[in-house]
Amino acid sequence: MKKEIEFMLNEEKVIVEVEPHWTLLHLLRETLELTGAKEGCGVGECGACTVIVEGDAVNSCLYPVMEIEGKTVTTIEGLAKPDGTLHPLQQSFIENNGVQCGYCTSGMIMSAKALLDKNADPTENEIRTSISGNICRCTGYVQIVESIKHAAGSMKNTQAAQNGK
Amino acid sequence: MKGCDYYKPETVGDASRLMASLDGARYIAGGTDVMVLIKQKKLSPAHLISLRNIRELSLLDTSDGLSIGSGVTHSRIVRDAWIRDRYSALVDATQKIGSPQVRNVATVAGNICNAAPSADTACPLLVLDAKIRIAGKKGERIVAIEDFFLGPNRTILEQGEIVTAIAIPKLDENSGSAYIKHTRRKAMELPLVGIAARITLDAADRAPGWKESLRNAPNAEALPGMLEAAGIVCRDVRIAMGVVSPKPMRARKAEAALEGKVVSEALLDEIGALAASESQPRDSFRGEAWYRKDMVQVLVRRAVLMSIERIVNA
Ligand SMILES: Cc1cc2nc3c(=O)[nH]c(=O)nc-3n(C[C@H](O)[C@H](O)[C@H](O)COP(=O)(O)OP(=O)(O)OC[C@H]3O[C@@H](n4cnc5c(N)ncnc54)[C@H](O)[C@@H]3O)c2cc1C
Ligand code: FES
Ligand code: FES
What we know:
The complex is a heterodimer of chains A (about 160) and B (about 325). Chain A is an alpha+beta fold and about 160 residues long. Helix content of chain A is about 35%, strand content about 15%.
């Protein structure tokens, strides 16, 4: 029995029919065709499905779709500007080799974004904690941590330049 | 996941009425246990009744001790500096549960209702004398955490009952607590053994400045000697152990051995050994029984010292 729900997705209002037993990940990938969030394990262990709901990183594979009614959801597709300019985190992952096969990348970036949105100047320890629920089988994590550090730095510089104007 | 209905009641009363009227329904809070069980096909409820939209359950009340509404997530406990100062053991536990993604939605109440022998918040709640508030058809009842667990994934909750809050009493000013989760990895792992302790140092006959003098311990190993020399007595001793029996348990013999006594090296060894003798760990793919017992001995000592360090450093 389908139900209609309404929520904010990447700054746009979405009204969509869902089955009440779906997860948020299912809605994103199978109905809305936003395939940035990946299904790795499907049970909360790998973080490939990470999206941001109301400012917090969550596993969309465990998030009941009915709970997003009226909420704000951000996925990796919502990070680049409409003109295609990448988010500093995306740019930094490219420049610092934070991506190998790419399967974990959108989840890593969403976890990092949830951190940087709340804490613009994180310690290495805080960065590592923020991605402790994201598994990467390729990079060994060092370049990922570097990518997040550099992104934090460049976001701070941009902020300082804007404030200086 | 096969079809199932999803309900979002806004009051506890509506939730229990729904539960009574529907066949094969299950409550869901953060869903980090329920959704996993459903996906693994170990559970197939016909209806899910969400507790996430019930306002009153999301309260954290610090007016008299601490009351944790059953909708409170682990992340909210971790962020709370007031709780960290007073109920450190609970923060030790919640900050290591799963990942940020899990902690952002999973609740403390869900952790104890699921009642895994490895549930990380169980030992801290045992040493903090937590009481569980439960709403059901017959009205409210309040149960001590020690009586709440029956065995692996089994609690005293009767059909349809809802945990509304977890209440922790106010502790003496000179109390400290700690929880040590013993794992092989730094994150995303269940404990091989979990040990919590809570101690009150009896400050009745102490001259001002007694804490400061203990703060100068050159290292943790020097602390027992300094405590012994100062002759400070331990009160309200609580020690709890997880993963070493079908349900989280208090180490009563170890507690009794320290109660009213002055900490010393010899006494720490003795209570560690007593706690190990009370534990009944099993072999599992994550760790063998003999190793778990050895770790109980080591970690009980460590958790007691950590609790005391927190008192003197407060
Ligand atoms: C990747 C991952 C890692 C994890 N790591 C850990 C870990 O390190 N340590 C640990 O202890 N646990 C861990 N867990 C288990 C789980 O996250 C915790 O047990 C969590 O606290 C459960 O809370 P929840 O709100 O998600 O519960 P839910 O899944 O919503 O519910 C759990 C059970 O309790 C019942 N229930 C929930 N709330 C109530 C209520 N108020 N009244 C009555 N019944 C209720 C539900 O019906 C269900 O049976 C992990 C889980 C995942 C997926
Ligand atoms: S797919 Fe969600 S955590 Fe692995
Ligand atoms: S880049 Fe391949 S899993 Fe991380």
